[in-house]
């Protein structure tokens, strides 16, 4: 289906919001966050980079009731919702979470219920942040799959590309709102994408590895670099909280009115007691061991199981880091030790 053209985003957002809740990016200082769209109050904008909060919040909430006792827990119906402004790194992170929570033998009904009701409107990146490094892990500044609709900015408006039957249905239902995109506008979109890709590639040239990341981290036994990184880490856990692919959780029992509830809550492998077991033993008390484990999960364990890296190069961990760690620099240094 050829791309469609629309002059302003409000027309598109109003059409999508008529089908269910819509979350759009809102700029707060220098970052974007998601907010619920209200047609009467909001003028939607196209975020030039990814929103600072990860899309996993919509599919895998920070805190979620999973079971109750003594009664049987009845899961709540999830209403249709849409998220606007997701980038290629966000779509690849959803693909990674899908593999974890939708495996044949280990389907998570909570995750799946949210995933099935989600409508995705992605958009091109026009100004990659200094922390973005998706190009190091097969990413780019525009998505080519995983979306229902994708938005690309062009002169005097936006191109709308269909990526699914759900997206096609929305456009067909609102044909009067859109025009057919001209070849000139499509060429302009392609030139914009090429320019953004060149910026991203240039600013990450110094971090490129001449070995696969999996080989780099698997060959890092005995490296002192993890101790050096630990000295600048304050254990804030922000790197795993804002990461769109980190998915560790724990189950917490709590008393709720006249029954007991089991809460499913985000966890972090950077937390010291994360690996603690009965009897007080902890195989990863040392911070440098936890930093290494994080890299092993991203680039080794997940790769062994699913054949792809668990890092999408969104750069959120770099922006959120309270310490001094930059995962690109650490991988580059480890690569340097490997190639000596």
Quick overview:
With 340 residues, this protein is an alpha/beta fold. It has helices spanning 9-17, 56-59, 88-101, 109-116, 165-173, 183-203, 213-218, 225-231, 238-241, 287-306, 316-320, 327-338, and strands spanning 4-6, 21-28, 31-36, 63-69, 81-86, 118-123, 149-154, 157-162, 179-180, 249-256, 259-266.
What order do the helices and strands follow?
EHEEHEEHHEEEHEHHHHEEHHH
- β-strand number: 11
Biggest sheet statistics:
8 strands, mixed
Helix content: 25-40%
Structural class: alpha/beta
Shape: globular
Question: Rg from C-alpha positions?
Answer: 22 Å
Chain-averaged pLDDT? 93
Produce the secondary structure layout.
Elements: E1 4-6, H1 9-17, E2 21-28, E3 31-36, H2 56-59, E4 63-69, E5 81-86, H3 88-101, H4 109-116, E6 118-123, E7 149-154, E8 157-162, H5 165-173, E9 179-180, H6 183-203, H7 213-218, H8 225-231, H9 238-241, E10 249-256, E11 259-266, H10 287-306, H11 316-320, H12 327-338
Parallel strand pairs: 2-5, 5-6, 6-7
Antiparallel strand pairs: 1-8, 1-9, 2-3, 4-11, 7-8, 10-11
What do these coordinates show?
The chain has 340 residues and is of the alpha/beta class. The protein folds into two domains: 4-62 and 75-207, no CATH class; 213-247 and 269-338, no CATH class. The protein is built from twelve helices and eleven strands. The strands form two sheets. Strands 3-2-5-6-7-8-1-9 form an eight-stranded mixed β-sheet, sandwiched between helices. Helix 8 (225-231) packs across helix 10. The longest helix has 21 residues, at 183-203. The chain is globular and about 65 Å long. The mean pLDDT is 93.
